Amino acid sequence: MNFGNLFRIALKALSNNKFRGFLTMLGIIIGVGSVITMLAIGQGSKRSIQAEISEMGSNMIMISPGGDRRGGVRLSADDMQTLKVKDFEDIVEKCSYVSLASPTVNASGQCVYGSNNTPTSVYGVNLDYLEIRNYKVEDGDTFSEQDIKTAAKVCLIGKTVVENLFTNGENPVGKVIRFGSIPLKIVGVLESKGNNSMGMDQDDLLIAPYTTVMKRIQAVTYLQGITCSALSEDYTDQAIDQITKVLRENHKLKDGDSDNFEIRSQQELASMMTSTSDLMSTLLAAVAAISLIVGGIGIMNIMYVSVTERTKEIGLRMSIGARGMDILAQFLIEATLLSVMGGIIGVIVGVGASFVVKALLAYPIHIQPWSIILSFAVCTFIGIFFGWYPARKASNLDPIEALRYE
Amino acid sequence: MREIIKLDGIKRDFIVGDEIVHALRGVSFTVGEGEFVTIMGKSGSGKSTLLNILGCLDTASQGDYFLDGVSVRDMDKNQRAILRNRKIGFVFQNYNLLPKTTAIENVELPLMYNNKYTRDQRYARSVEALKAVGLGDRLEHKSNQMSGGQMQRVAIARALVNDPAMILADEATGNLDTRTSFEILVLFQKLHAEGRTIIFVTHNPDLEKYSTRTITLRDGKVISDESNKNVLDAADALSRLPVEND
Ligand SMILES: Nc1ncnc2c1ncn2[C@@H]1O[C@H](COP(=O)(O)OP(=O)(O)OP(=O)(O)O)[C@@H](O)[C@H]1O
Ligand SMILES: [Mg+2]
């Protein structure tokens, strides 16, 4: 069997029916294109989540009040007030594996400057928090330990709030804004962090001493959370153990009692988030894979019809000496060529679509070479697999029967 | 004279429903190299069935068939395909050219299934075959851009191109007008003169006078087998045909 000749024969047969060939390829083009685009989107969001986590520091530990939230039972007000400033102070003092720690108390409200106002949140924290969450001051300075002691009416301001309040390009540093009814003096402007992977604007906030938020804004005695940082990622577990011990002691919990607080590490959160995005990628890829299979069935369909339609041609080829396997090979090559060409166009379409998604929706995408190779290999396989049955049928035709076919 | 075909008690039965149709009921004859045999007979007498067996497109239910000294009976499908490719040139009533395909590509086709030929040889031989049938100037014409007579010439060139032991033609002139039929007949006589073995099936009694031998079939049996002492010249007949003016 001369492969080169069979290849030429198959190519000729395809070029005699270009439009139909294109229609057949369409299924594969859409299939491969969507597999690549979907995987690029899935991988892109996974990567951006990972990048964000590593930027935040993978050794972050978050403590929140309230115990196990099993069953989604709503927590009573008491349960939400278990964390106290004393807990924070003891963690700093007693937990050797904790390097940084900050209380957190948040409040939402309307922020006003001159005639402009905007809804935003104020985060009450200490200076460690800036380091843990990687917030940097671009203009001006942070507040001081003294400000924390005196619950000074000062704050740092995020870029989004600046844009909303200081519409005429004034320098916000030194200006006094009001959060609710409390005047706060801006001591520094935060460097922009952009959106996080959930699409939340990380620049839409004020950062103030936690004492200020507790006493002057919220008027509460408890904390909404404590954010810590372990010495390093490897010490996260030890740090969590120490914190648990300190908090159980402080809260006077007996051996059998369950925790009335919750500790989550960034690692845990990270794996949760990546597993969510993995699930999303898998679902997207599955949908795309189905369309690839539908494309394959399209090839089978067309090949099947064309075997019937070209029965006479097959009879003629056999009468001048084509063997069953020559016919089989011709139809298989035709099917493979269709799927490979469809695959190539699909790759181009998929890569193109990924960039369109990136450009138009500002969605993070990442095209992995293996996704191209994989979808290409799959579609070639599909072409051969689905081309096999009609090709087989063609090769088993009886020469005279085929010649007589009308 | 070398024996090209030797048939010995060939029978061919078709089963249609519960009925058995005896298309051939024991046909025996031999054909030597360089003979030009016309097979005659009424419709349904078994001419096509016989030719299909001769062309290794079909196999006999009983009896032996030796082609060029080789028994065809025990061959499998692939071996018969190779035999068709190397030893047999088939010409059909309805030409059977590939659609949307040029004359040269159609003629090249049998050689495509033969590894012996390189691309250049294939092309050269096909051009030669097309020249031999008088279509040297129509190489790139597509099958749908040609007349019936031209298409049949292409088909004959395709049958010639692999230099077969014999050329089998089933009603090769059946779809053509008288004039074109004679043109084709001239071509067959020319090929015969070059030493080729030709089996020519027709039900037109006028055509038998142009071959060297006539075998007549009736109900699947040979009822006469005569050699023709006085072979007429088809070119002569063609020149005496009235020229149609319209
Ligand atoms: N594939 C087949 N199945 C069943 N019967 C067949 C088949 N082929 C041929 N026959 C029968 O065999 C007999 C001979 O047919 P064949 O085609 O050989 O005749 P023929 O001499 O070529 O006739 P014509 O001049 O009309 O072409 C007919 O009775 C026909 O019905
Ligand atoms: Mg017939």
SSE blueprint:
The complex is a heterodimer of chains A (406) and B (246).
Chain A: H1 3-15, H2 18-56, E1 60-65, H3 85-94, E2 98-113, E3 116-125, H4 127-132, E4 137-140, H5 145-149, E5 154-157, H6 159-165, E6 176-179, E7 182-190, E8 205-209, H7 210-218, E9 225-230, H8 236-250, E10 261-265, H9 266-309, H10 311-319, H11 324-361, H12 369-395, H13 399-404
Parallel strand pairs in A: 3-8, 5-7
Antiparallel strand pairs in A: 1-9, 1-10, 2-3, 2-6, 2-9, 4-7, 5-8, 6-7
Helix pairs in contact in A: 1-11, 2-9, 2-11, 2-12, 3-8, 9-11, 9-12, 11-12
Chain B: E1 3-16, E2 19-32, E3 36-41, H1 47-54, E4 62-67, E5 70-71, H2 77-87, E6 88-91, H3 103-112, H4 119-132, H5 148-160, E7 166-170, H6 178-193, E8 197-201, E9 213-218, E10 221-227, H7 234-240
Parallel strand pairs in B: 3-8, 3-9, 6-7, 7-8
Antiparallel strand pairs in B: 1-2, 1-4, 4-5, 9-10
Helix pairs in contact in B: 3-4, 3-5, 4-5, 6-7
Adenosine-5'-triphosphate is lined by residues 14, 16, 21, 23, 41, 43-49, 203 of chain B.
Describe the structure.
The complex is a heterodimer of chains A (406) and B (246). With 406 residues, chain A is an alpha+beta fold. Chain A has two domains: 3-52 and 272-404, no CATH class; 81-259, no CATH class. Helices cover 56% and strands 17% of the residues of chain A. Chain A has helices spanning 3-15, 18-56, 85-94, 127-132, 145-149, 159-165, 210-218, 236-250, 266-309, 311-319, 324-361, 369-395, 399-404; strands spanning 60-65, 98-113, 116-125, 137-140, 154-157, 176-179, 182-190, 205-209, 225-230, 261-265. Chain A has a six-stranded mixed barrel, surrounded by four helices. In chain A, a hairpin with a 2-residue loop joins strand 6 (176-179) and strand 7 (182-190). In chain A, helix 9 crosses helix 11, helix 9 packs parallel to helix 12 and helix 11 packs antiparallel against helix 12 (369-395). Chain A is elongated and about 100 Å long. The mean pLDDT of chain A is 86. Chain B is α/β, with parallel strands linked by helices and 246 residues long. Chain B has a single domain, classed as P-loop containing nucleotide triphosphate hydrolases (Rossmann fold). Chain B has helices at residues 47-54, 77-87, 103-112, 119-132, 148-160, 178-193, 234-240, and strands at residues 3-16, 19-32, 36-41, 62-67, 70-71, 88-91, 166-170, 197-201, 213-218, 221-227. Chain B has a six-stranded mixed β-sheet, sandwiched between helices. In chain B, helix 4 crosses helix 5 (148-160) and helix 6 packs antiparallel against helix 7. The radius of gyration of chain B is 18 Å and the shape is globular. The model of chain B has no long low-confidence stretch (mean pLDDT 92). The A-B interface holds A 1-2, 5-6, 8-9, 12, 16, 312-313, 315-326, 399-400, 403 and B 52, 55, 57-58, 77-78, 81-82, 84-86, 90, 92, 96, 98-101, 105, 109-110, 112-115, 158, 162. The structure holds adenosine-5'-triphosphate (ATP) and magnesium ion. Magnesium ion binds at residues 47-48 of chain B. The site of magnesium ion (MG) has 2 residues of chain B, from helix 1.
